Amino acid sequence: MKLYLAGPDVFRPDALAWAAEARQICAAAGHAALVPLDGVETTAPGIYQANIALIQAADAVLANLNPFRGCEPDSGTCVEVGFALALGKPVIGYLESNETTVARVARVTGRPLEIRAGRPVDRDGLHVEDFGLQLNLMLAVPATVVVGTLQDAIRQLDAACLGDRARQM
Question: What pLDDT, on a 0 to 100 scale, did the predictor assign at position 165?
Fold first, then answer.
């Protein structure tokens, strides 16, 4: 399968080395990695169009949904996940921790969340979604989320595909 690798990893100082390792991990599992860094575009519109084309060409999307610059996943990654879901492509997200959204907001803000009218609120008085999920429900419900690494996401995708094939027989 062709796997689009979504996530903020493209912003790492070692992004090219990360991409080479990710390609090797995918290849070892029998898949081809489609990496946002693969394009030659240098303008914002060009990069956007190139990434959209890669998602369209992919069989599935594997998304690094770890918090990026705060409590939530990278916003660009969220757009890529949403686009892939709209196309009906499988999306496997991976996280380093099974920490819930409520626990993460409390940890990042450095203090327990206040409860108002039975609901947790952040330091700005805004409600924090409390469904016991690791991510906002708009990611956690439609995508498959695994705690682990890119390799774990690939194993989950392969297992799901094998299960789908078995059900079709």
Answer: 55
* Alpha helix (H) residue ranges in the chain: 15-28, 44-57, 75-86, 101-109, 137-140, 150-168
Q: Which two tokens stand for residue 116?
A: 């108002």
DSSP 113: P
Give me the torsion for CA of 105, 100, 72, 57, rounded to 10°: 180
Name the residue with higher pLDDT: 168 or 98.
Answer: 98
User: For 29-83, what is each residue's pLDDT tens digit?
Assistant: 999 999 999 889 999 999 999 999 999 999 999 999 999 999 999 999 999 999 9
**Helices vs. strands in the chain: H and E counts, helices first:** 6, 7
Phi, psi of 6 (to 5 degrees): -95, 150
Residue 105 is which amino acid?
V
- Strand ranges for 22-160 from DSSP E: 32-34, 60-64, 91-95, 114-116, 119-121, 144-147
Q: How many CA atoms lie within 13 A of 34 on its CB side?
A: 20
